């Protein structure tokens, strides 16, 4: 039986979310990302792309290429709500799905042709997502992940394509190698230097030559160019760590500022743990100095999701780590060795009032946003809130989007 793999890709996802919130942005060149000189482009509209702007481009260059673009810092929490909404729709409908990223999904539809017709079912799902979320989405349908992903890219904007079984190689042949997964700028420049720019050229090359050029990755890429990919759709990835990092617009030695941001990060991540019904036993603090040297330190602790314990550990790590007295360029906090479980009450330290306060604060954050309530010492930090990494279901989507 031939496999049937669907790849769904939300078009210019961050841009589409911003335009839902502010329709006045429709039709305008829009760039989302870090707004400082050190920032990079996270996403951009097709209007901005026409001027040569692309994702991961330095923001400074993007402004030069498209000076009249509307630039927005972006709100990961807001985008996360729409990502979760689309995920819920897919979860309700799909027999087996994989969330590959914020805005990309794979669905294994093998065998469904006997009951519904895969393309017909995928089209109906796409229409439902567009209706209930208001977001444009494209899909590609084929026998494997690679061809489906590439075809979804060819279907954009807001379209759909099916590559019939047996036509995978012919479909890929005329495309640029840049459109293939695994081919980044460095790999493409290497191959282009040899006169290899299109998939059809790789299709004609011996696999051994690709292996000599790129090692094991060369073999994998050669197979993908032939339309061969047996990678399964994986329904669930156990997350082993969560973290937040902040790169400063200007290097700083302000200990009050650093302390405030550190505490805000530790507090926010603790909230994410509790929301995901997780516990951690390892806290990691990372610093990058102005001279670009990066250092980190970790501490093992009893499994917990308690603010007090995690904040105290993070502060202790920072104090022992920051010993050069140079300006700091980046600071980050990470919790690892995650396991399932709820917060265990410490009978020597946790009072009923403390537990009730913690639960009340989490309830407020879930309803009004992660920055709705925080410790006073962390009030000076902004934008620390992050998307729920455990695919929770934060509220906030307008009611008419759920209908």
From TrEMBL:
Transmembrane segments: none annotated. Keywords: Cytoplasm, DNA damage, DNA repair, DNA replication, DNA-binding, DNA-directed DNA polymerase, Magnesium, Metal-binding, Mutator protein, Nucleotidyltransferase, Transferase. GO terms for molecular function: DNA-directed DNA polymerase activity. Poorly processive, error-prone DNA polymerase involved in untargeted mutagenesis. Copies undamaged DNA at stalled replication forks, which arise in vivo from mismatched or misaligned primer ends. These misaligned primers can be extended by PolIV. Exhibits no 3'-5' exonuclease (proofreading) activity. May be involved in translesional synthesis, in conjunction with the beta clamp from PolIII. Belongs to the DNA polymerase type-Y family. Pfam families: IMS, IMS_C, IMS_HHH_1. It is an enzyme of class 2 (transferase). It catalyses: DNA(n) + a 2'-deoxyribonucleoside 5'-triphosphate = DNA(n+1) + diphosphate. Residues 5-184 form the UmuC domain. Mg(2+) binds at residues 9, 103. Binds 2 magnesium ions per subunit. It comes from Agaribacillus aureus. The keyword Magnesium applies. This is DNA polymerase IV. Monomer. It comes from the Bacteria. Gene3D superfamilies: 3.30.70.270, 3.40.1170.60, 5' to 3' exonuclease, C-terminal subdomain (1.10.150.20), DNA polymerase, Y-family, little finger domain (3.30.1490.100). The record marks 14 as: Substrate discrimination. It is found in: Cytoplasm. PROSITE patterns: UMUC. Its cofactor is Mg(2+). Its EC number is 2.7.7.7. The active site is at 104.
